[in-house]
Amino acid sequence: MLSKISATLVHGTLNKAGKIALIFSIIGISFSFGENVRAESSVFDQSKSVSYNGKSYAVTWVTVDLKDPTLRVKPVTAVTGIGHVESFSSMMQRNHAAAGINGAFFDAYEADDSQRFPNGLMIKSGQVMHSGENQAFTVLPDKTGIVQRIKTGMKVSVKHGGSSYTFEPWGVNKYYGSSQIDQVVWYTEDFGSSIDFPGTTKIVIEESKIKTITQNSAAIPIDGQVVMVGNSSNNTKNLLPHLHVGDPIAVSSSSLNSDTGLMMGLPQIDAAVGAGPLLLKNGIIDINTQRDGFTDPKITTNANGRSFIGTDGLGRLVMGTMSSATISNMAGVLKQLGFTDAMNLDGGSSSALYSNGVELTSPGRLLSNAFIVERMPQAQIQIAVNGQFVNEFRGYLQTETTMVPLRGILERIGADFKWDGNAKSLTVKHGNQQLFLRVGEKAVQVNGKSQGLVEAPIIIDGHIYLPLRAVIESLGGQVSWDQNLYRASLSIP
User: Fold this and answer.
1) Dihedral of CA 451/454/456/457: which sign?
2) What does the alpha-carbon distance between residue 392 and residue 390 come to, in Å, rounded to a whole number?
3) Where are the domains of the chain?
4) For residue 4, is pLDDT > 90?
5) What's the pLDDT at 11?
6) Domain 380-491 class in CATH
7) How far is residue 279's CA from residue 341's CA, in Å, rounded to a whole number?
8) Which residues contact 272 (CB under 8 A, 6 or more apart)?
9) Partner of 393 for a Cys bridge, out of 55, 124, 384, 405, CB 3.0 to 4.6 A?
10) What would the mean pLDDT of 74-78 be, rounded to a whole number?
11) Distance from the first to the final alpha carbon of the chain
């Protein structure tokens, strides 16, 4: 059989410290006719016809270099929140996606389009966006992707007087139905703007303290949460008496690897989407639908349009769609393409794929959620403080100055800080150091003495950023740089 060799050279530049330009070169070699490659920098897509088990399958996939510091990977939901639906193209455009794919299974046939809830876990920036137990594609802080079967967990500790009480919500951003009167659920802004389930008590949390306790509808505060407590006799007797307005709240989230029993804090996972079943593990076909919780023949035995996500032999993220195939044949095709780890995503009419402004596979329905690669306007700088990865924020370059999120740093060193919204000023106390700064002013006061800043503090999405050097000089400590991860590691006493 004659072979055709096609080479595509792709150039892309990334601004690193304002000085370093990277040139990515991708050489594609194919041994069959009909392969097509479209590329742009560190995100490129391909389509190919693959013969396997006596049949031909059309496969389209996107490859992503997770080391590109201008990229962020995350799950997204409909604009009006979890349980609602939106067009796939709108999700991609609204979230500035460089690439994206449909995500977790959801209640697509629910008549009420405000209750088409996902069935899989989602983790965004180290925080549980939707709880669950699934095979999940996870992106770690070291910018590697792995497939693992995990279960999310959460513990909430409440202090009142000299005592402390801890409880575990049933889930995050879920609803178990009006008949489950004992349910306790943690809600964030990802769910929507408010919670209005009758027959429940809403505990409104803002700035890590209980602000309101009400039986009425409750708005979810910006950067806050609402705990919904079913008005069962059990909760009325054992939980609600421990909750008071003004009580401080501390939350710890975790993930349990269902296969190894290993528990880890969620800061160890930057992003994740749960679905399944597993297809490939370490280059070996590994399908066990019973283990992964699937009994529907649409998944276990029937052929259908498919979506998948995983990694290739170079450790890059791959996500794609395939013409009608059984789960076993899909696994065989992906192994033949050289992928090492992969899992199934929602498919059929939900299958959707996007790359560099083009909808490569269009779904036949509105979607509840998707998994995207967002292209950021500036290179994103990871921050670690005293060994703790700061998931929720990234630093960035402004001209040649590294700007870092102050709150993420202060919280991890246990500093006290107070924000004055009217004056747009921040006062910080840590050990013997006291800082005072005001947004827009190129100066910071350290123990009453003014020090100049190369860039003024700025507010982005409600959070203050200021030059990294100012943080180190003001609070004391050292910083080390990891060029591969594009990470600044701060050591602050």
Assistant:
1) negative
2) 6
3) 42-111+273-377, 153-253, 380-491
4) no
5) 29
6) alpha beta
7) 7
8) 75, 121, 122, 123, 136, 137, 138, 139, 150
9) 405
10) 98
11) 66
